Amino acid sequence: KVAIKGIERELICPACKELFTHPLILPCQHNVCHKCVKEILFAFEDSFADGGSESSNQSSPRIRISASSMDRIDRINRSGRKRNSLTPRSTLFPCPGCQRDIDLGERGINGLFRNFTLETIVERYRQAARAAIAIMCDFCKPPPQESTKSCMDCSASYCNECFKVHHPWGTVKAQHEYVGPTTNFRPKILMCPEHEMERVNMYCEICRRPVCHLCKLGGGHANHRVTTMSTAYKTLKEKLSKDIEYLISKESQVKAHITQLDLLLKETECNSERAKQEASQSFEKLYHVLEEKKSAALRAIETSKNIRLEKLQTQVEEYQGLLENNGLVGYAQEVLKETDPSCFVQTAKQLHVRIQKATESLKSFRPAAETTFEDFVVDTAKQEDILGDLSFHSNGLEIPEINEEQSRMYNKALISWECPGKTDSADIYVLEYHKLNREEESVIWQKTEVCGKSKVLSDLDDDSSYAFRVRGYKGSICSPWSREVVLHTPPAPVFSFLFDDKCGYNSEHLQLNPRRTSVESRAGFPLLLGSERLQVGCYTTLDYIIGDTGIAKGKHFWAFRVEAYSYLVKVGVVPSNKIQKLFHNTHDVTSPRYEQDSGHDSGSEDAFFDSSQPCTLVTLGMKKFFIPATPAAPKDPASRILPLPSSLGICLDCDRGRVGFYDAGRMKCLYECEVDCSGIMYPAFALMGGAAVHLEEAVTAKYSEYHDDI
């Protein structure tokens, strides 16, 4: 017989770390307190509503949510539904036992079974732990008496007198089942949580849970393999009994493993102490080297100081000698008193030379030594960086690599990385970045810690280049730094707008998505019917669409993607005073010179055609970017054709009157020209044939998680 006190570990809830209270069985077969399940789901919903802030991670002091579970907040409540005051609405639950997201189904918590067997065992454990604590009667007037029995039908405890009063002979209540005093009341019949009026009488072998006959007939278990409850009871009990007998028969082997684990515990303690000593010795060596360098530097400074003081003191004495009746001047004054010419000449010659030198030094005064010690400044910037990176390096952690294709620089910077082995062996990552500046001699890296494999940064300057690197940490062990990647920010603040579905929008030829971020031209029957009337030439019109927001001043940037299959797309800007002309300009694709009966190829029509355009546009299509034919452009047409970038950007500078077209992936300017910004400027797009344009989505805090789910 197993001692009840020896199984306490199996009776602890993995969420609250206390004895189970009304445990629920999750689909993953782990047990969690009913209250803990609600608190965890409420905590996730609150964290999602607060944007996943760290302050809301521990909304309940009773539960302890792991960091890995907190990283999945956004995925749990992606729909953004609000919870009511009683029951959480989330259908995904982060199991604290297996650390996986478990789907609770449409009914959520209401679809989970209560583990009455585990509840009974917990109650027996509680009674064994508090044998001296009595259970009081629920119906006595104060003070209550000690209960003598509990009614399983009434779910209450009674003393002898109260039991007789509430269960009189000759009534239905007299037939109630009663047991000894207990606080664990379980129903006689286990009812189906899906169909509350039906008792469970079958066992689903696929879902591994009891079900009723309605679940099998038309519920979620209609096509599942089920068996009778008696058969499942007999089969599972036989398996469990055999497994228990096997474990008991291997008791000696288990004890041997326990002995081995005890030795490993002691060995771990010894090895950790040895590692501490080795680490201390390594740091002591560094301290010793630093102390030697410090002493040598201080000695050098002291020696230089003494030499300089000696030189300056000598210079002070020399200048003091130039004072009247003092030093050299006093001596010269005494020599002048000599009346014997021969004696005077003998002494005055050398004295005159000294007086001349003193006079020259007085005219060009210069200290004998420098007072500054700039040559003795110790530059420790590199050493500080090295010491800052000082940690336990391990070959077991893979070096992360920054994914330049998934990383984006737009209104914010999204930096993504991955491990070559596709395994997340690190607990946390450290992302460092700095702005590339030729004027700065020393590099100052900015650091941020990240739990996942992407980070959104919002404090970067426009029109700048930044270097990024990342490393992984697992405890105190870290991987080497990844290869540095340089990315460029947009040349101006990002301008947000949507496609305008009212001003000039041709719904017969163009199709907008519901969010108005994508437009597609439909080259269908209207285009064929329009071209049927044409016998020669081609006067098919472009279908224009503009942005719903204009720009009056300043410098702005926006980006978009053109589908590779697009035949013809024009992009640029249009002033507000020329929008009407834009949508009524019918002959804007080809000039008459290309008609079969035009009769000439002078090119004069092109000059008129270019000057008559109401807006500034460049042409894209067939995976190419066409630089407009201007006097400054190359004369060779082939040199004006560039590969179409995956993402294009437009930078409008209203103050300077210029517009630039960029490769938005590399933030490289492909073409720039002057533009008349006298009115309000609108983004303009034109499509013909099969074509599609998608506006770039702004980078938000949840952008990376959203695309990971996709």
From TrEMBL:
UniProt entry keywords in alphabetical sequence: Coiled coil, Cytoplasm, Cytoskeleton, Ligase, Metal-binding, Microtubule, Repeat, Transferase, Ubl conjugation pathway, Zinc, Zinc-finger
Domain Fibronectin type-III: from-to ranges: 399-492
Family: Belongs to the TRIM/RBCC family.
Coiled-coil region(s): 258-285
Protein source organism: Cnemophilus loriae (Loria's bird-of-paradise)
Alphabetical GO biological process terms: acrosome reaction; spindle organization
The organism's place on the tree of life at top rank: Eukaryota
PROSITE patterns: B302_SPRY, COS, FN3, ZF_BBOX, ZF_RING_1
Listed GO MF terms: ligase activity; ubiquitin-protein transferase activity; zinc ion binding
SUPFAM superfamilies: B-box zinc-binding domain, Concanavalin A-like lectins/glucanases, Fibronectin type III, RING/U-box
Residue ranges constituting the B box-type domain according to the UniProt record: 187-229
Keyword Transmembrane included in the entry's annotation: no
COS domain residues: 336-393
Residue ranges of domain B30.2/SPRY in the record: 477-704
Location relative to the cell: Cytoplasm, Cytoskeleton
GO cellular component: acrosomal vesicle; microtubule
The protein's name: TRI36 ligase
Keyword Cytoplasm: yes
Gene: Trim36
